[in-house]
Amino acid sequence: MVAADAPTRSVADARYLVRALEARLAGIAGVPYLPTSWAVKGPDEALQHSDVQTAADKLRRTMEGC
Predict the structure, then answer these.
(1) Domain ranges, ordered by start, for the chain
(2) For 18, left (φ over 0), alpha (ψ -120 to 50), or beta?
(3) DSSP H/E element including 38
(4) At the top level of its lineage, which domain of life is listed (predicted)?
(5) What does the alpha-carbon distance between residue 4 and residue 51 come to, in Å, rounded to a whole number?
(6) Which among 20, 41, 40, 53 has a CA at the least distance from the CA of 2?
(7) Cα distance from N-terminal residue to C-terminal residue, the chain
């Protein structure tokens, strides 16, 4: 899982590393930058926000292969 830590595009070195490792991994799932994650105390509180719910659902589907 690759989680963005800023609301910008990943630097070239990070993108290259992900592409280079992709063939050796079962899969890669990306999670967008979620500013809400910095303002909450835990996952239960984070899941009260729609942007976190959307990202969690997308990640779950990706990991389940749907």
Answers:
(1) 2-64
(2) alpha
(3) none
(4) Bacteria
(5) 14
(6) 20
(7) 16
Give the separation between CA 11 and CA 2, rounded to whole angstroms.
13
Q: pLDDT digit string (tens) for 27-58?
A: 888 899 999 888 899 999 999 999 999 999 99
| Residue whose tokens read 């079962």 | 26
What is the C-alpha separation between 37 and 34, in angstroms, rounded? 6
Distances (CA, A) of 17 to 13, 20, 33: 6, 5, 19
Residue 65 predicted with pLDDT over 80 = yes
* Beta-ladder partners of 3: 31
**pLDDT at residue 2 is higher than 90:** no
Using DSSP's 3-state secondary structure scheme, residue 20 falls into helix
Q: State the pTM of this model.
A: 0.73
Half-sphere exposure of residue 32: CA atoms within 13 angstroms, side-chain side: 12
